[in-house]
Amino acid sequence: MITTWNKLHQKPYYANKPISEQEALKFDYIFKTQSEGILGIDMSHYQGKITWEQLELQIKDRPVEFFIFRATMGDDQDQLFREYWNALDTMDVARGAYHYYRPNENSTLQAHNFIKSVHLRKGDLRPILDIEKHSTIQSQNRLREGIQNWLNIVEEHYGVKPIIYTGDAFNRHVLVGKGFEDYPLWVANYNPIKEPESEYWVIWQFSEKGRLNGIYENVDLNILRGGKTTLDALILD
User: Fold this and answer.
1) pLDDT (tens digit per residue) in 106-135
2) For an engineered disulfide with 210, which of 45, 63, 181, 221 has Cβ 3.0 to 4.6 Å away?
3) How many Cβ atoms from other residues are within 10 Å of residue 233's Cβ?
4) Closest CA to 219 of 84, 124, 110, 33
C-alpha cells in the first residue's frame, strides 16, 4: 500500500477501527500460543508521518517492544528512515534497520549504501537484509552469490551476522540448503497457519494489518519467539 503525500497531512490513524473477524482470531491465537513471544512492528515511508506523541505501544494486552524500519533499498534511501530512527531515541524499545535488496543491482554497492546510511549502536538490533524478489537478469546461483556478498560485507562492518528477512516460499525455493541457515531468520507468512513452514524462524511477520494509535496506515506485526533471551541475542552489545 503506497501512502500518497496528501494523506500525510490528515489526522492520525487510530487503532480502534475494526479489523476482520479472521484477523482478530489470528491475533488471539498467536498471542496465546506465543505466550513468551515479543511483539514488534516494522515500517517504511509507506506509513507516512507518525504522530509520535499519540503513539500507543500496545495491541490488545501485548506491549510493542521493538520497531524495525526500512533504511535503504538498492542504491536509494528511505525518505522517512532518519525521522523514524531518531524518534526512538527517547523510547524504551529496541530498534532495527533493514535493507530492501534489489536483485538486479550490484550487491557491493547495496551493502555500502546500507552501511553509509545506518549507524548502529549498543542496544540496536542486528542489521537486516530483506530479500524476497527473484532476479530477471541472472540465475538463482548468481543471486545467491550476491546475497552472500551483501551479508559478508555487512557482517565485516558491524561485527555480527545479519538477520535475513524473506517469505516462506522464497526461503524454501532459494535459500534453504544453500548455506544461509546460520543467519537468524525473520520470515513472512500472513496465512492462517499455526507456525511458519520454515522451522528455524526467530521472528514471524504474521500480519500486515496491525493498527496503532498515532499511525495513519496499517503496520506489519511480528512476533519474536523465545522472549527476552532471544531478543538479547539479536541486540548489539
Assistant:
1) 999 999 999 999 999 999 999 999 999 999
2) 221
3) 11
4) 84
